[in-house]
Specification:
Blueprint: E1 5-7, H1 13-23, E2 50-54, H2 61-77, E3 80-84, H3 92-104, E4 109-112, H4 121-129, E5 133-137, E6 147-149, H5 153-171, E7 176-182, H6 188-204, E8 208-209, E9 213-215, H7 220-233, E10 239-242, H8 245-257, E11 266-269, H9 273-281, E12 286-289, H10 292-307, E13 315-317, E14 321-323, H11 331-337
Family: Belongs to the bacterial solute-binding protein 2 family.
Keywords: Signal
InterPro entries: Peripla_BP_I, SBP_2_dom
Length: 346
Amino acid sequence: MARTRTVFSLSFVAIIALVAVVAGVVVGRASGSGSGGGGSGDGGAASGTRIDVIIKASDSSFWQVMLAGADQASEDFGIDVSTFGPTSETNIDEQVQLVENSVSRGVDGIVIAPNSSSALNSVIDRAREAGVKVITVDTRITTQSEGFIGTDNVKAGQQAGRRMCDLLKAKGRTSGAVLVESSVAGIQSLVDRDRGFRQGLAEGCPGVDSKLQRYNNNDINTAASQVNDAITANENLLGVFADNNTSGVGAVRAVADNKAADRIPVVAFDSDPQENAALADGTIDALVVQNPYFFGYQGVLAAAMAAVDRTPPREIDPGAVVADQKNRETPEVKSLLEPPTAEPGS
């Protein structure tokens, strides 16, 4: 039976946590200790529930924010949380091995941001067959899990496309090409994001060509080189859309090197210190900011629910916010731009 899709904003994190406490969804099976970040919070016997959190890459501040959210849930509810991640978003084999390790250690649940929509299907199926509850975040998989938490990337991409169109109209430049600078080919969240961007851009700027696209394999230097090449090859390049923080940092570097910030607007996804600095100085015109802290925090709660045979929400979308120079200091936006971070294994 289909379950209702739920959308939450940042302000609802505390409410969701309260509901979890009232419903007793994080009551564990038995007391115990583990190697993770389990704390002495209100979870009581929930300290016996062991949850592994596996991010996409340990080299990204975005995913360290997700770990911080997971660690906070551990502290708040006494859930035994351990955190892991491959070194790069392109390292699918390492992520598969991490899932296998979690199953071998007998954890109750796994929260994972998959690096592929399909390559982890078999190992996730084996985990669930072994009784491990699996919550996926950020990227949907094409097999079953107990729940999904992530941004509707088509809608978020549309937000980016509409903002790019507004920026181009403000400059009086609505005929030409924009570059879509993408991190990794074939990642469904990025595919959806790029598709949404094109849809949002076309709504108000049908004369702008968005077919030009490059993939940088989540490498800042490659992204910078690709954006630089696009700028030097096309003096009339209208703008750059970067679909994750790595692509955004590379785009910023290239635009700054070419002294083109006044001419070429940049709209990017996510946030990290370099992107935030670029937003402040105007090298980036807008950031579409997700809530990875929510991914980690609510992912742990959802996995804990499933581990004690309660049914977590099938889908939760925390939404995305467009940050710019006008709103970046407001409390809600600032909390997304400057969230706490953590390191794998913390």
